[in-house]
Structure formats: C-alpha cells, structure tokens
From TrEMBL:
It comes from Kitasatospora saccharophila. InterPro entries: AAA+_ATPase (IPR003593), ABC_transporter-like_ATP-bd (IPR003439), ABC_transporter-like_CS (IPR017871), ABC_transpr_LolD-like (IPR015854), MacB-like_ATP-bd (IPR017911), P-loop_NTPase (IPR027417), SpoVT-AbrB_dom (IPR007159). Keywords: ATP-binding, DNA-binding, Nucleotide-binding, Transport. SMART domains: AAA. One of its GO terms (molecular function) is ATP binding. Pfam families: ABC_tran. Residues 282-325 form the SpoVT-AbrB domain. Residues 40-284 form the ABC transporter domain. This is ABC transporter ATP-binding protein. It comes from the Bacteria.
C-alpha cells in the first residue's frame, strides 16, 4: 500500500501521521482543548493609585465553537475586563486563556497584532468608537482587510470588494454601503460595526454592550445581525449585555459575579410531534475545578444560610441544609 497522497482522491495518511494521531488520542486532554474559548482560573489585578482591584478572581469559562453566549452580571463584576482580555487588549495577571488555540499569555507583540486582526472581532457599546467617521460603510468594512496586508493586485482588490458587499448584504445593509456613519441610525451603525468586526473572517466575535445605546426595537435588529453572523458565517459569538431580550434569546447565558463565573442559564427548544415548539430553561451554578460552588444569594437568604451548611450525599444529589445549631 502506498503512503503517498494519490492525485485526485483523499490523501492517505502516512504511518507517522497515524502514530501521531494515536498518541494524541491517548494523551490526557487539555482543559477545554476543543473549545473556541477556554479560560482557566484567570486573574486580573489592576493597580490604580496604589490600590489593587481584583477585577477577575480565578474565572473559569469555556465556550464551544459555533456557540452564541450572553455574559451578564452587575456593574463592576468584571465583564468588560474579561472581554478585553479575550480581545487581546489586556493580559491576565495569572491563569490561562486560549481563544481558537491561541495562548493569550504567551503571544509576542507581533502575534498579538495578528490575533487582533484575524482571530477576533470586536464591537463596542459606543457606536462612534466602532467606525471611522470620514469613511463610508463599505470603506470602513474594507479597512481591516487592507490593514491585514497581502498583495495589492487588482484581483485582490476585486476579492476585497466582493467580501465587503457580501458582508453588508448578509447583514441587510447593502443599500447603505455609500453612507458615512453620521448618515446612519445607531442600529445601522452597529450593524456596519459587526460587518467591520467580521471583515477578516475571525473565528470569534466579541461585543461589549452592543445594544446599550439603542431602544428595544433597534436593539432587536442588531441582535438579529449577531445571530446571522453566528449561524451563517459560523463565528462563535460572546455578547456582554444588560438587555434581558438578548440574554433571554440565547441558548446559554453566563452570569459573572465578583470576577468569577457564578451561574448560567441553559435554554433548550424542543419541537413535539405536532410541530409545537417549547423552550425549557434551567439555571445552573458553576462547579469550579477545586469543587467550589457559589449558591444563588436569593437561595441562601431564603433559608438564612450563612457561614456553614450541612452537606449530605444522596444517591443522585447532594443536600445542603442550614447549619444545625444543636450539633
Ligand atoms: N483599567 C482599570 N484600572 C483600574 N481598575 C479597573 C480598570 N478596569 C476595570 N477596573 C475595575 O475592575 C472591576 C471590574 O470592571 P469591569 O469594567 O470589568 O466591570 P463590568 O462588569 O464591565 O461593569 P459595567 O457593567 O459597569 O460595564 C471594577 O471594580 C473596575 O473599577
Ligand atoms: Mg463593562
């Protein structure tokens, strides 16, 4: 049997390749190895006026490829800090963070630049921050592709133009290509911003409160554009939001509390034999890798639990009860 690739048919793997695959399959799997995003005990400490702020305090999060996830949490809980780390704008103080296989702690300045241009896209809350005011929508979308470099042949320019047109079309703003940001509504500007963020076909799209400055109806249109990017362009999307509409429509929404992922809500939509759709929703608390869980504050308050709880193992669950002062 030949181990050379045959022309036309699929390449036949060499013995070395097969051996490599077998070894890789037998090796212990790294935490979140196949995930688009894998944060493992990420710590971020800011020092301002000699005071240390622990914005992230050992945050664990994995996001599967192709998922659309909302990040929610009180002001100051660390959402933007996490997003800035994932965007390659900040580096963690400790822990590990990988996005699409890139190690965010080990990147050189040059790799970081490439990472920000090609692996992740970013949409900010402030519509004005996302776009160049003196360029048209189409020119704004073309800019990241130009900055990426490559050959400047007429064929490359044609391909770039095609990509820009396709993106604007996919986000239903094709007819706005020649307008400048000042000639667009807030919602239209955000949709152009999504096209800009997707210009270099990144695998992960991050957005920090992208609908924060918009009314409900406009926000719904922008959220629809994120869905399109997720479903049709295949990007993994993470949206930080206070908007209950956004958080209520994604399959998974993760809550951050005090710099850690504290709980998450998973939604499942099922279609029965009559074609009726039902959506079920369940809240989970996170179990970290050392076995710690953070219980919902409302649950603890309801039973007056604090400081110490009695834990009992049953066949299929663990029961937590208020500490019995009789013991
Ligand atoms: N550059 C910085 N220097 C010092 N402290 C910072 C810096 N950035 C964030 N922090 C602090 O880190 C904590 C987390 O801030 P972060 O901006 O991540 O919160 P957030 O969840 O995005 O809040 P919001 O919903 O208000 O946007 C806060 O206590 C904040 O004051
Ligand atoms: Mg923020």
């Amino acid at each position: 049997m030949s181990t050379e690739p045959t022309s036309g048919g699929p390449a036949v793997p060499s013995l070395d390749e097969l051996r490599g695959r077998a070894l890789a399959a037998a090796a212990p799997r790294r935490y979140g190895a196949d995930a688009a995003i894998a944060c493992d005990r990420v710590v971020k400490i800011f020092t301002a006026d000699k005071v240390e702020v622990q914005a992230l305090q050992g945050l664990d999060l994995t996001v599967d490829r192709g998922d659309l996830v909302a990040l929610v949490g009180a002001s100051g809980s660390g959402k933007s800090t996490l997003l800035n780390i994932l965007a390659g704008l900040e580096t963690p103080t400790a822990g590990s963070a990988r996005v699409d296989g890139c190690d965010l702690l080990a990147m050189s300045a040059k790799e970081r630049l490439r990472y920000r241009r090609e692996v992740v896209g970013f949409v900010w809350q402030q519509t004005a921050r996302n776009l160049m005011p003196f360029l048209t929508a189409a020119q704004n979308v073309a800019l990241p592709v130009q900055l990426r470099g490559g050959r400047s042949t007429p064929a490359a320019a044609r391909r770039r133009g095609q990509r820009v047109a396709e993106l604007l079309e996919a986000l239903e703003i094709g007819d706005l290509a020649h307008r400048r940001p000042a000639e667009l509504s807030g919602g239209q500007q955000q949709r152009v911003a999504i096209a800009v963020a997707m210009a270099n076909d990144p695998s992960v799209l991050l957005a920090d409160e992208p609908t924060g400055e918009l009314d409900t109806e406009t926000a719904a249109g922008v959220f629809h554009a994120f869905r399109t990017v997720n479903r049709e362009l295949g990007a993994t999307v993470v949206i930080v939001t206070h908007d209950p509409m956004v958080a209520g429509e994604v399959r998974r929404s993760v809550a951050i509390r005090d710099g850690r992922t504290a709980s998450e809500v998973l939604r499942r939509t099922e279609v029965d034999e009559h074609g009726t759709e039902t959506t079920s929703e369940r809240e989970y608390v996170m179990l970290d890798r050392t076995g710690r869980v953070q219980l919902p504050a409302a649950f603890l308050a309801a039973l007056g639990m604090e400081h110490r709880v009695a834990a009992d193992l049953a066949a299929d669950h663990i029961a937590l009860r208020p500490d019995d002062p009789g013991h």
